[in-house]
Design goal:
single chain, mainly alpha, 13 helices, 2 strands
Length: 289
């Protein structure tokens, strides 16, 4: 049991990976929370998040009508408390980006994001959940050892936070693939219904639809997601899995509106690159063997 645990969590990695994840998550947060079609520091939570939520020019879905908290008793999404949370996200994201006390700032950023989601139940989106979850993962990493204004001196970093990032990616792909093992998805019914409501377009969509139809594309997507799990989990095929995962998100992003989901998953795929620090055996070890 200890050997298996050590194989997953023990060891050291190049701290550059944690700095890259920190910068990537902070950049996505800044892009995601800013509505560039309205004043940057709008106090209206709905106005603040509308820009990449619905893409009004491309998405025919109407804005949610229910503006109320997830749980009765929580403040209104139009309250001063909600406005304060919305205001707090930008400076917190900047602190994370610059590497200034990035771990507590990332934790506070994630908590603020989740609180805003709880205050406005109609604004739940999977890509937002993934973004704030990523902030929590950043808070677990020594992410200020590289590419920060005041970097800590650290030649190597613990491997276990990187393993958590990798495991989370495997959970996402496994859950997405397993959820599609449903007759209504595999026969193309669900995909056809989604395509009728949301704009699906682009060269990949047109080519796939013409070649195998809705059913064939539905099966291919499910198989693609499920195949990523073993490919990414096995060290010898991780680079192949990362390339196939990136290709999947390029196809999805060029086909329909998924906001920052593809970029978030690209950061997760970065964790499967060979960041581990290999150690040469000591002379005593070579003698013992």
């Amino acid at each position: 049991m200890k050997a298996r645990w050590d194989a997953l969590f023990a060891g050291e990695v190049d701290p550059l990976v944690y700095a890259a994840l920190r910068i990537g998550v902070a950049t996505l947060a800044l892009v995601r929370i800013a509505d560039w079609t309205a004043p940057l520091l709008s106090l209206d939570h709905h106005g603040w998040v509308r820009g990449l939520d619905h893409a009004p020019s491309a998405d025919p879905a109407a804005a949610p009508a229910l503006h109320k908290p997830l749980i009765d008793g929580l403040p209104s999404p139009h309250s001063t408390f909600a406005a304060a949370l919305a205001w707090a996200r930008a400076p917190l994201a900047v602190l994370v980006l610059l590497g200034l006390r990035p771990r507590p700032a990332a934790l506070a950023l994630g908590v603020s994001g989740y609180l805003l989601m709880a205050l406005d139940a109609s604004r739940y989106f999977h890509h937002l959940h993934l973004l704030w979850l990523s902030c929590g993962l950043v808070a677990l990493t020594p992410c200020d050892a590289r590419l920060s204004l005041w970097p800590r001196r650290m030649a190597e970093a613990p491997r276990w936070p990187l393993t958590l990032w990798r495991l989370q990616a495997l959970v996402i792909y496994a859950a997405a693939g397993l959820a599609k093992l449903d007759p209504r998805w595999l026969d193309g019914t669900s995909l056809r219904a989604i395509a009728e409501r949301y704009p699906f377009e682009g060269a990949f969509w047109d080519a796939g639809l013409g070649a195998v139809g809705h059913a064939g594309m539905a099966v291919a997507i499910a198989a693609w997601e499920l195949a990523l799990v073993p490919l990414l989990a096995w060290p010898r095929t991780r680079l192949v899995g990362a390339a196939l995962g990136l290709a999947l998100h390029v196809v999805l992003d060029s086909t329909t509106m998924v906001s920052t989901f593809g970029a978030s998953m690209a950061l997760f795929l970065v964790t499967f690159l060979p960041w581990e620090v290999s150690r040469a055996p000591r002379p005593a070890d070579r003698t013992a063997t």
